[in-house]
């Protein structure tokens, strides 16, 4: 291979200052799904900015490209946003300028379009009612058509964010009252979202009528907290209070120091994203009062019942598959071992790795423990297979370390359809399960055997009551049954973009 070709291929893997920096920065080495964003809110606490900082740290797994906090003291906004991890964006001096008792905060992972500061949230707008800040997690499936209509009516957009569409709808409302304007705007949008709106004297929280994206409320003394996951409450010493209900609108007024429970739409078909339980949420989080680690262990147990294989050890692909691997091992009696170790310090590397490491890029983040897997029949548990490239690399990694057999077990059904609700997924033609049979996938990833958890086994393992369609989950990525209207203009990506 010529040096010119090598250089061209190497440069194609970078779009920013860092290896793994910017949109599509995951460079093909790992084909894992990527979550969209995380939101955090505080109302009624004098250290709202500091609490938001620690809350965002707990939600860092939901977005690593930008972070922002906007606070108000009842008279105006103080805010800061920038590109990078939470610890890179904020320091003591910056947090010292963010004075106020109410805050909304955001971490972002860009799933479509350019990764740039203009799209970092919270987004700040000025309109006739004063300053307005918005942070969201999710994706609006009809944003493109609404934006087109608004532009024809004279609206000028400053970002490529779905969130700005909602801001324009609020600004164009005939209602001067911000609560009524927000309600009117939300009735015009479709999709999945957890919104935090902030004015100088109010904080408003809203969740889509299907409850597609997780959104929880907590308490810290007399203060109210809001977050994408309950783990953020633990980080600030708060406690979980309840989930924000689908279609619910919670209004917190600084002058009154109180919260009003309201609603902008009735609850529709409940459809919490199943992938939150399988992969995205942290194991120490609870969604709808169901602990993620416990649910994943049950998935592993069910996977063992559906697809037992005689082997010497069970190992999980770090980190999201560890819980399922423990469940599989407990059910079968096969010892669980740390056969794969994750290197946590390669995500933002200044140097470009060698061509050899680009070709075997999984070694940058995973290592097989040779003394554990050598000469062993290994059951490798993973949470999903997207394109199949990562699974192939990990199987080969285990074989190179001396594993005599590698049996792959996936704690979810085959991922066959793109997500339109805020998860970064490739086009259907790039999803290996949409193009190949299970036997063909097995051959493609070089496994001795392959089995996916059934949809029924998945839903039973999560444990929500069997009284709604799909037990109240969105399983469109598995069965092509989308809970909301999907148009040709629907963007596969995130409302942050």
How many domains in all? 2
Broad structural category: alpha+beta
Largest sheet: 7 strands, antiparallel
Spans of at least 5 consecutive residues whose pLDDT stays below 50 are 1-29
Multimeric state of these chains? single chain
Helical percent range? 25-40%
Q: Write out the CATH superfamily name of the largest domain.
A: Aminohydrolase, N-terminal nucleophile (Ntn) domain
Mean pLDDT: 88
CATH fold-level assignment of the largest domain? Glutamine Phosphoribosylpyrophosphate, subunit 1, domain 1
Beta-strand content:
15-25%
- The separation of the N and C termini measures 38 Å
Number of helices: 18
List keywords for this structure.
single chain; Rossmann fold; six-stranded antiparallel sheet; seven-stranded antiparallel sheet; iron-sulfur; disordered N terminus; PurF_N; Glutamine Phosphoribosylpyrophosphate, subunit 1, domain 1; magnesium; alpha+beta
Question: Explain this structure to me?
Answer:
- There is one protein chain.
- The chain has 497 residues and is an alpha+beta fold.
- The protein has 2 domains: 15-271, Glutamine Phosphoribosylpyrophosphate, subunit 1, domain 1 (4-Layer Sandwich), CATH 3.60.20.10; 289-463, Rossmann fold.
- 29% of the residues lie in helices and 24% in strands.
- The protein has 18 helices and 23 strands.
- The chain has a 7-stranded antiparallel beta sheet with strand order 3-2-4-1-10-9-11.
- A hairpin with a 2-residue loop joins strand 9 and strand 10.
- Helix 6 crosses helix 7 (178-186).
- The longest helix is centred in the middle third of the chain and has 15 residues, at 292-306.
- Mean pLDDT is 88; it is low at 1-29.
- Its cofactor is Mg(2+); [4Fe-4S] cluster.
- GO terms for molecular function: 4 iron, 4 sulfur cluster binding; amidophosphoribosyltransferase activity; magnesium ion binding.
- Mg(2+) binds at residues 320, 382-383.
- One of its GO terms (biological process) is purine nucleobase biosynthetic process.
- Pfam families: GATase_7, Pribosyltran.
């Amino acid at each position: 291979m010529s040096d010119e070709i090598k250089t061209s291929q190497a440069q194609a893997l970078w779009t920013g200052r860092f290896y793994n920096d910017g949109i599509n920065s995951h460079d093909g080495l790992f084909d894992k799904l990527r979550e969209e964003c995380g939101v955090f809110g505080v109302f009624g606490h004098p250290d709202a900015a500091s609490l938001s900082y620690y809350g965002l740290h707990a939600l860092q797994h939901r977005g690593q490209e930008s972070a922002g906090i906007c606070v108000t003291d009842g008279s105006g906004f103080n805010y800061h946003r920038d590109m990078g991890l939470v610890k890179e964006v904020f320091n003591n001096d910056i947090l010292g300028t963010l004075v106020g008792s109410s805050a909304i905060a955001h971490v972002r992972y860009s799933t479509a379009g350019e990764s740039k500061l203009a799209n970092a949230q919270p987004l700040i707008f000025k309109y006739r009612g004063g300053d307005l800040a918005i942070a969201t997690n999710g994706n609006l499936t009809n944003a493109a058509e609404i934006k087109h209509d608004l532009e024809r009516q004279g609206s000028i957009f400053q970002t490529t964010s779905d969130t700005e569409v909602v801001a324009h709808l609020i600004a164009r409302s005939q209602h001067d009252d911000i609560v009524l304007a927000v309600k009117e705007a939300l009735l015009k949008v479709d999709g999945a979202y957890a919104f935090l709106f902030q004015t100088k004297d109010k904080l408003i929280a809203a969740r889509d009528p299907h409850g597609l994206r997780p959104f929880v409320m907590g308490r810290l003394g007399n203060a109210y907290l809001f977050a994408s996951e309950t783990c953020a409450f633990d980080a600030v010493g708060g406690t979980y209070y309840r989930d924000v209900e689908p279609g619910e609108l919670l209004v917190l007024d600084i002058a009154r120091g109180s919260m009003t429970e309201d609603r902008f739409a009735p609850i529709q078909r409940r459809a919490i994203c199943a992938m939150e339980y399988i992969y995205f949420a942290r194991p120490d989080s609870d969604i709808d009062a169901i602990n993620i680690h416990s649910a994943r262990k049950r998935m592993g147990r069910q996977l063992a019942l559906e697809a037992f294989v005689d082997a010497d050890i069970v190992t999980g692909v770090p980190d999201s598959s560890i819980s399922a691997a423990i469940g599989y091992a407990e059910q079968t009696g096969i010892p669980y071992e740390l056969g794969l170790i994750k290197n946590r310090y390669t995500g933002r590397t200044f140097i470009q790795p060698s061509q050899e490491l680009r070709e075997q890029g999984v070694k940058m983040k995973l290592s097989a423990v040779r003394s554990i897997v050598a000469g062993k029949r290994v059951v490798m548990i993973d949470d999903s297979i997207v394109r199949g490239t990562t699974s192939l690399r990990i199987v080969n990694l285990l074989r190179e370390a001396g594993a005599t057999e590698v049996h792959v077990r996936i704690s979810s059904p085959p991922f066959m359809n793109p997500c339109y609700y805020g998860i970064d997924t490739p086009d259907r033609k790039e999803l290996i399960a949409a193009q190949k049979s299970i036997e063909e996938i097995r051959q493609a990833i070089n496994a001795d055997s392959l089995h996916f958890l059934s949809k029924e086994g998945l839903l039973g393992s999560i444990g929500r009551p069997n009284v709604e369609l799909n037990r109240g989950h969105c399983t469109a990525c598995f069965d092509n049954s989308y809970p909301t209207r999907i148009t040709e203009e629907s963007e596969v990506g995130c409302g942050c973009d």
